[in-house]
Amino acid sequence: MNKKYQVLVNGEQERSLIHQDIESLDAIKTSATTYHILHSGKSYNAEIIDHNFSKRSYKVKINNSTYNINISNSLDQLIKELGFEIGNSKKVDKITAPMPGLILEINVKIGDEVMENDSLLILEAMKMENVLTSPREGIIKSIAIKKGEAVDKNQLLVEFE
After folding, report:
1. pLDDT in tens, the chain (161 residues)
2. How buried is 47 (Cβ within 10 angstroms: 0-12 exposed, 13-18 middle, 19+ buried)?
3. Strands 113-114, 150-151: parallel, antiparallel or unpaired by DSSP?
4. Domains in the chain, please, with CATH?
5. CA distance 152 to 59
6. Residue 7 backbone class (left: φ over 0; alpha: ψ -120 to 50; beta: rest)
7. Angle, vertex CA 99, rays to CA 112 and CA 142, nearest 5
8. What top-level branch of life does the organism fall under (predicted)?
9. 96, 108, 127, 138: which has the highest count of C-beta atoms within 10 A?
10. 89: Cβ–Cβ under 8 A, 6 or more apart, which residues?
């Protein structure tokens, strides 16, 4: 399946990209927010200055020029074509324990970027392992538990930025 993206730069320049365009990009991550990119024989230094995952918008500085970039995927485009308003993504800011249990595994760290349905942790309750997944895209702000810790129902486990 070939994923398609629409990219809007500074509210004017619109480009269509496919997943292979992104994968073929020669980019090296040089720090948490900076990249070195080679494209058509030219070198670019890129820095992500600001981002809003729920709105898929980014402020990027490339070779000392700043660009505001909005990205829409195939689903966003379909919703727009059907005439529906693209609503905000789920605004879940925290994950709490759905039942008392024992934390068997924590699959994320503070600062990790997660996608919807990524596994966050495993909670053992009533001799069953329950995988708790991310309800939305986001960045892990805090982790309030440790591996091997017993938790109560509704106890805070993970917070998102």
Report:
1. 577 888 888 888 788 888 777 777 888 999 989 999 988 888 999 999 998 877 788 999 999 899 999 888 877 777 777 766 545 445 788 999 999 999 999 999 999 999 988 999 999 998 899 999 998 888 999 999 999 999 999 999 999 98
2. middle
3. unpaired
4. 4-81 (no CATH), 94-160 (2.40.50.100)
5. 40
6. beta
7. 25
8. Bacteria
9. 138
10. 53, 54, 136, 137
Are 60 and 8 in contact, with CB atoms under 8 Å apart? no
Residue 23, SS3 per DSSP: helix
Question: Which tokens in the block code for residue 160?
Answer: 């998102």
**Other residues' Cβ atoms within 10 Å of the Cβ of residue 18:** 12
d(CA 13, CA 106): 42
Closest of 130, 79, 83 to residue 105, by C-alpha: 130
